[in-house]
Amino acid sequence: MSMKSFWSSRKVLVFNLVLAGMTTGFALAVGVLAFNGTWTPQKTAYAENKPIVVPASLFEMQNTFRTIAKTVLPSVVEIKTQSDVANNQISPINPNQQPFDFFFGPNTTPETPQTPNQTPNPNPRAPKIPKGQRSEGLGSGIMVERQGDKVFVLTNNHVVEGSNKIVVKLSDQREYDATLVGTDVRRDLAMVFITTKENDLSLIKLGDSDELQVGDWVLAIGNPLGLEFTVTSGIVSALGRQGGPDDSVNINNYIQTDASINRGNSGGALVNLKGELIGINTWIASPNGASVGLGFAIPVNNAKKPVKDFISKGTVQYGWLGASVTDIDKQLLKDLKVPGSKGSFIPHVFKGSPADKAGILPGDFVTAINGKEIADTNALVQTVGDLPAGQSAEFSLIRDGSVVKKTVTIDPRPKETDVKGLKLWPGFAVSVLTPELRDQLDLSPSADGLLISQVESRSTADIAGLKAGDLLKAVNGKALSSVSEFYRALNSSNGEIKLNFTREGVELSIGVSR
Questions:
Q1: Which of 302, 242, 245, 243 is nearest to 270 (CA)?
Q2: 281 and 200 assigned to the same domain
Q3: Whether residue 180 sits in one domain with residue 150
Q4: Which of 259, 283, 315 is the last residue of a domain?
Q5: pLDDT score of 45 more than 70
Q6: Into how many domains does the chain fold?
Q7: Which residues are catalytic?
Q8: pLDDT of 240 over the 50 cut
Q9: Are 239 and 312 in contact (CB under 8 A)?
Q10: Cα 90 vs. chain centroid, distance in angstroms?
């Protein structure tokens, strides 16, 4: 390539343009420095130096949480259990399992095989335990009282139920073998104790769950998913929740919280900002087995009497009224001339029970006990259950529109088998014939009387042959058109009544006595 061609090429042109740009930039930089004087580079970025202003109230809240954690954690324990189970009792966690199973689901671990010389099962009807199968469970507990060398730990019944070995582990990793004191199925509570001469174990302070309000800050402390001694925070989402697992047995009215609760939290502490125990974490509502912010705790006030009973008697003793109780709808409240809707209805009374002896009658509506308003049936059951056996209580009732007061001497609650042997009076319930019921039963608009909606099994009415679906026409010859008329006729009798009714269009009558 000739020299002339070289200098006119595209590459040389681009090079010259770049060089010219660099020279111009350098000249401009020198000019700026000359105009502004000596340039000093900045060593610190201003954005990083800007202080973060945190309200003092947030630091106070943080310090409160720290103090609660330091104070309460030593009083919360981990509870490990072992129990022999059959193969069909072992199942993985799944979305359809019960909340109790989620909290305390079984896991199988190998065990030393049985030897040929081992004693055979003494009960041939009991399920045989498969060789090498053992269920291990994990839950939480709370140290609530100490007497001498015994330290008592409160937990849930479903945490220790069926266990043949219980180990309690403290937050400082000390472990103790524990002994079961007693269980309370109705409130899903249990108590175990450990024995130690060490005097540095920390007991929790019991608060007053009746003072709780929706929106209060709470902390949940336990051992979720095996992560020992975890603290989570939230608020009280609701109060007085009913139902839950095994709601046909339990009588709790739960605290609902959005503080995170998971498997292993059962039996752990729910505390307020004073570090006081206000609930025992028990179950969650979840579509998939994981925490979704719907956790439930037993109010500590529900546990105070059981704690005393466990320690003094080894079992929980409930008071017994001796009457069947239920909630009723607005129509029946109006029929019975009950002002308002708070209270509980008594459709049946057990013969010879405290209620019967005190003069409480079927058809009465309980509004208060010892001056304390009864909100609903659940509240009545809990209030009566906490009444000491042998003591008297004043019941405020509505009877046929009038206020009646009866003094009842409470008995200890008998065994279920003993209760089933008692006579229930009258043993059947009635309802007004509504248009909806007429349609369901295919009755003509002219059909009159009251529908027998329920007959209690093994009651006198049941034995006499009365059936649900019968149409009750009259009691002792008095025609009926309302539920209040039925109870008025029933209670005005001397204990023997004649019932006229129809069944599938056939007129029948029977005599029933107490």
A1: 302
A2: yes
A3: yes
A4: 315
A5: no
A6: 3
A7: 158, 188, 266
A8: yes
A9: no
A10: 24
